[in-house]
Amino acid sequence: MSAPVAPRYPRVLLKLSGQAFSGGERYGIDWPVVRRYADELLQVSLAGVEVGVVVGGGNIWRGREAAQHGMERGNADYVGMVATVINSLVLQDALESRGAETRVLTAIEMREVAEPYIRRRATRHLEKGRIVIFAAGSGNPFFTTDTAAVLRAVEIGAGIIMKATNVEGVYDRHPSDPQAKLLRQVSYLDILNQDLQVMDAPAIALAKDNDLPIGVFNITVPGNITRAALGEEIGTVVRS
Q1: Which of 83, 91, 108, 170 could form a disulfide with 61 if both were Cys (CB 3.0 to 4.6 A apart)?
Q2: Could you tell me the CATH number of the domain that includes residue 44?
Q3: Looking at 87-220, which runs of residues are DSSP E strands?
Q4: Cα-Cα-Cα-Cα dihedral sign, residues 105, 110, 116, 117
């Protein structure tokens, strides 16, 4: 019997969009889907990988849409940050119901429900084997949770940021195009120059500046969180 393969990355950060929480719907929470995420994240943690998660809030609130209806953009973004805290607490409950030890750290202080984000505290939690969920983005309006995810990944020293999507990875054109080809590897500059829509430009630039690989994979396939976190070659890897 062969020995288990050691994980490629000792520490990873998973970026979950708010839409990932709603399954196939535009809004709301798909509870069976969230429970599957929790199962897979627990498997990753039990394999010895230190796991951080950044969540979006688009299944509850879309700041840009609110701004289009006349709401001041900064205020709309703050409401979106609160939405990410809701999703974080939902994921935390799903994980802890399976026996995982977790912490929610939020960039906006909500001491009754989560710890304030402090980089060294986050790192210490990870070292103790806790799954750390980062909420409220970066705490600043006008920045996406993609940018916040790259920032947190750099701050905690993650080996890779895993960007969950509903397609197989990065394509050379829109995935709905029948001529689209899946790219197994692509550079940061190609993402920016060809506007391949992996993450927003500030997030890609920050990853490039810190030589942080971005793994893009299809989260709708059961088991893919575990596969991506353990270093299996699925989807697309963005690097220099």
Answers
A1: 83
A2: 3.40.1160.10
A3: 102-106, 115-116, 131-135, 160-165, 170-171, 182-183, 185-187, 214-218
A4: positive
